[in-house]
Amino acid sequence: AKFLFVLASLRSRAEKLHKVQKFDQARELIAQAQAMLTGGSDALKLFPAEQRQSLGAALEAQSAKLEAGAKLARAIAAVDQASQSNDLPKMRHALQYVLKQPGLSATQRKAYQGRLAQVLSAIELLSARKLLRAGDTAGARLALQRVLKTSPKNSQAQAMLKNIDTAARKEKLIQAANLDFVSRRFNKALANYEAAARLGAEERIRLRIVDCRFNLLMGQAEALGQAGKYDAAAQAYNQARQIKPANATQIDAMLLLLENQRQYDMYIRMGDRAREEKKWTQALQAYENARQTQATEEVDQRVKLTKYTKNLALGDEAMREGNYSLARFYFKLARKQNDTKEVQARLNTILENE
Asked: How far apart (Å, rounded) are the C-alpha atoms in residues 344 and 334?
């Protein structure tokens, strides 16, 4: 009885030490108990062989349980150590190892599975960031999708994936805008650049928006000038100057051309009005002023027409006065300007009347 009492005491003390994770001390007690069973004491001989085998098996089972507990404790300690160093690969390895241990309770297993999911997500997030820095957007997207597959509510992965999608949409808008810009479709380009800027401001986009607005105003000013709306055209040029002050020299040149065109058109109108009123000298002077502003084929044609009309009118007046010689002189001058059937008919009339 004393033998069994001592043996049970050793096993009980070893169990208590196991529970408080004093594994070395528990091993010593179990070793003492095993030595009692394998020794040759007279008391041991009193027990039947079957009972001795049963006691030995119980000690072996307790020893195996103790070693499994020690192994689990080491695994848990490795997890804690890796967590303190914040070494994600080590944490992953330690957590995967501890989850292989059979001694985990259901609560522990669930907790470590959750921690492993967090570590795996953190590793994928780091990988996604590295891929983004390397310009591998597709790879980063896949890494983030893996995170969300295991952790659907991971806010960092959601935010990063959203940023990738936003950047892709913005780049698509910029590419479309660039194509419109080089094709001089500035209205469409401006709309796309502004849409891209709303997804995230960048200096390159801001500069392109400025270029679009500048070019639109320059085109508007040119169209207004061609339509003879010179004040409105000048206003558009000055607005363009405010958008891009660095282009002041270009705009000053355009304003000078605009004023030149304004003067030219004014002299042309003056000449046309004087010609209609048969004020030949004033008309010719106005056309000459227009020529000084811009020497064009239009001016030459108007001068030619004015001289023709003038000589035709003077010839008609001479005919009415019966001065056929003077009339012939003016009609021949008119014919030099424009040899028309109208002039020839008048010359024929003079021949018939002489």
From this structure: 10
Give the residue numbers spanning the domain of 54.
1-84
In percent, the amount of the chain with pLDDT more than 90 equals 49
176 pLDDT more than 90 = yes
Number of domains in the chain: 1
Flag whether 37 is in a domain: yes
Q: How far apart are the first and last CA of the chain?
A: 175
Q: What is the pTM of this model?
A: 0.60
Helix axis angle for 341-353 and 297-320, nearest 10°, is: 20
Residue 59 lies in a domain: yes
| pLDDT, tens digit, 9 for 90 and up, residues 139-158 | 988 888 888 888 888 888 88
Is 238 within a domain? no
CB-based burial of residue 217 (10 Å sphere; 0-12 exposed, 13-18 middle, 19+ buried)? buried
Examine residue 155 and state whether it is found in any structural domain, yes or no. no
Instruction: Kindly give the residue spans of alpha helices, DSSP state H, lying in the chain.
Output: 2-19, 23-38, 42-45, 49-85, 88-98, 106-133, 137-150, 155-182, 186-199, 203-226, 230-243, 248-276, 280-293, 297-320, 324-337, 341-353
Radius of gyration of the chain from its Cα atoms, rounded to whole angstroms: 53
